Amino acid sequence: MSSTFWWYEQAGGSAAGPFTEDYIRRLLAEGTLPHDARIWSSRREPWPPPVAPQARERLGADGRAIGWLLLSVPFLLGWSLFGLALTLIAGGGPAPTDLRVHAWLLPAAGGALILAALGLVFHWWSAPRKLGAGAELAAGLRIAAALVAAAWLLPAAIVLRDAPVAIRTAQVVDDWSYLLSAGPDDHTLVVQGVIGPGFGQRLSQRLETLPDPARIIIESPGGLIDEALVAARAIEKRKAVVMVGGFCASACTIVLMGGSRRLAPLDGEIAFHATSPVVASTNAVANWLAGQAGERARAYLLSRGVPAADVDEARRRGARDIFAVADVTALEQGVLTGLYDDRGEIDRETLSARRPRSR
After folding, report:
1. How would you classify residue 119: left for phi > 0, otherwise alpha for psi between -120 and 50, otherwise beta?
2. What pTM did the predictor assign?
3. Nearest CA among 327, 333, 251 for reference residue 296
4. Among 164, 120, 168, 162, which residue's Cα sits nearest to residue 141?
5. Which of 38, 248, 278, 281 has its CA 20 to 30 A from that of 157?
6. Does some domain include residue 209?
7. Are residues 90 and 224 in the same domain?
């Protein structure tokens, strides 16, 4: 315990004391003694008293521990979440990730990176004093810490800027609905509605329960590209037949092209559509991710025999329009392997004998 005693100046100008350091601190904490009061010691030392070497060392160690904690944990968490967000949202995994995961992943990544930046500043702002550095070195270290922290804030700003779009996207697709139901026989699965989250996995599981030859009848305006790709590859692996039961556009055409045989109504048409974000946005990252999904869709469609001219024409028209191809034309192109009407299946030879109006 310190042997130094302290006095303070009262309102009338007289001195009060002597008191111990702990007593003076208690008066200040209680508000009995104003913080701007004049306080001095028996050694003529100013208030507050200098920190003892042992206490200063302990405070320094505690500060370094807090600094490293604020720096290392958010740093590892932030960059891990940031990398995971980019990987999953860009479709880097073997299957599409639930969009609700993206909705919480982006804010979490951004918040962790901000904490990491604050931890860096907290740690390095006091580091020069702990190292006994001179003024110039101290200023340099602090400027470096500020620049690095600012660099960490950039990806944090990116993911936090994308977070509202991801949250809104998850809300929209949660409202999408699709139905997988039993068909007229044990070999058939009927698919209706918008292709939404979990579609690929659910269709794959139902497909495994169908005896050979498996058949899918689909009617859909489209939906999520990556879910459609998962479904199409499962259909392709099973060598199932796909029949268009009504309107089929956008992501539905991807599912259709997975079929070993692809049938559509004689007087119908299939529609190709440019890929776009679920939620219209001027966000560059959201549009880039939609473009990447479009490239994956294009690559699959071309690999299954869709003419590049059809896919590129849909892209040229943009997200506000569709490019419809008559089923008769699609048969000639090899997109379809057959047509059907109320009299049954129609192949190319039968079609040549009773060719309908062509677009």
Report:
1. alpha
2. 0.63
3. 251
4. 120
5. 278
6. yes
7. no
